[in-house]
Amino acid sequence: MRIIRALSFAAASTAVGCATGPPAERGYAAVTNQIVLASANVESVGPATLPFEQDLSGPHDEAFYLRIALERNPAVLAARRDVSAVVETIPQVTALDDPMLGEKFWTSPAHSPQTASGRMVNSLSISQQVPWPDKLRVRGEVAEQDAKMALTRLAGEELSTVERVRLAYYDLYFYGRAIEITHENEDLLEKLVEFAEIRYRTGGSQQDVIRVQVERDKLDNQLIEYQLKLSQTQADLAALLHASPEIRPLAAETISLPPVPETLDRLYELSARCRPELREKLHQIVRDQRKRELARLNYVPDLNAGFDWDSMTANQALSSVADGKDNFGISLGINLPIYRDRLRAGVREAEHR
To answer: Are residues 5 and 34 in the same domain?
Structure first.
């Protein structure tokens, strides 16, 4: 029975892992779609969706307990919030820095700059730092891999919760059915005891009576053991649901087990391909490669583009031909990545990670 439950859960976990975590590369969905789904799951969780404690007692199907556990598990909720937080870094790292707006004015005409067109009253400038285009792209790819890693961690937490809830649910079903069957066997033994006693009174062997009574006592002990294990399993499931230990959850009358792969090698293959921890490491490798590329891009200078407006006036101008026309100008500049020790250290740091 335990072997069947273990194999059934392993197959189910593999299926959930492929659905929740990143699947094989050929069928890999876009990270933005996964992000939207994960964020929707975060926003949909709230007290209004959770049942009252008394509603958790009694027979329910497996999906009911799984939903409650996933909605209440602190590790799952934290992983969902982490996904939502990491996703918000993508538009931050791919956006330009804020433009700079500057205003320069002079306190007295005597200190104002003078040109042929007149006296400068004030000067307004606006500039924008524009990084090399590949830098924004690579920054976005790094953040995207971080988001994928967060999604795989979420898948791992969900799988861990599903595993524990399913094993507890299968134990719940097993002990519940075992108690029912034991009660049925007790009823049969009671009839056998009555029959053996009638035979004994009519000259039959007393050993038959004793033997049947011993079997009945064994069943009584077994029933007590099953009831204790059922109570323990109910307490374990209540803890997984983060519910009161007073609730008495029960399994449904019938359960549907997921299909088990025909061979153990196939199960190993699915587990290796869909394991969230492995997918996270693969995304981490890609992320670190992008970080090394970003460190090398720091050798490329960035552009600074600006626009200047000088407000001019002929009032108190020194030039005899001053007309007071404003001046307009465009400025372009680049940073000079000349401190190579710092740049080389950044590349080495990225390579060592």
So the answer is: yes
